[in-house]
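User: I'm preparing a small set of examples for a lab meeting where we compare how different chains pack in three dimensions. I only have the primary sequence for this one, and I'd like the structure in token form so I can line it up with the others. Please keep the answer compact; I'll paste it straight into my notes.
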Amino acid sequence: MEEILIAINFFKGTDYNIILFDGPGQGRALIDNNIKFTPYFEKPVSAVIDYFNLQEVDAMGVSWGGYFVVRAAAFEKRIKNIVCFDFFYDGLNTFLRGFDQEIQKEIRHLLTDQSAEKLNKLLSPLISENNNLNFLFTKGYENTGTHDPYTLLKEIEKHTIKNIGHLVNQNVLLLAGKDDQYVPFSDLTLEQKELSNAKSLETKVFTKDTGGEQHCQAGRYDLALQAIQTFLLSHAN
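Assistant: Understood. Below is the structure token output for the 237-residue chain.
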């Protein structure tokens, strides 16, 4: 949560009151209260809205929050405008990105067949040999309270906009980095199609030429924040 404070300062001088909070599996919700990661993010969002007795809000999700905010808005209609900073379509696609295509296919097959022992045997050496994968899975175990690749991936598999995006009928802004190192850029088209009933759908793609091509526009937050402010102001009434 503290990492976002600098970005939130961008909104000083606007008519917005900002509520910043850690959800399940994040920051202090995890560390201080041992509340684990959940795909059902409409529950904590609704709890925060209820606590402050709000009738209408705009909601922004950062990184994996790009999934959370869409999930929340699908079921929580006090959300008027949605900002995905940036877009996040499917957790499993993100977790498997570091594996080659053939391994990805095998992993998906083993998950479908519920072959836990075979999957763990396949992935454990690959994860231990790759620093990026090791970090991703170790963090995943911490956030979800799981202890092996199969159980973690079965949990992460629930984090998807597929089959719920049509429930979103609010205004949506999707930010996307062309060279995002975590979220597959090819997922953007899938998410756009899924959000078929959005009141409006705007997409802002950042490239090396524009700047902001990395995950959550790292290094050029100002470009993302300008796009977000323009979107919110255009839907303020």
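A couple of notes for your slides: The mean pLDDT is 93. Strands lie at 57-62, 79-85, 171-177, 200-206.

User: Perfect, thanks.
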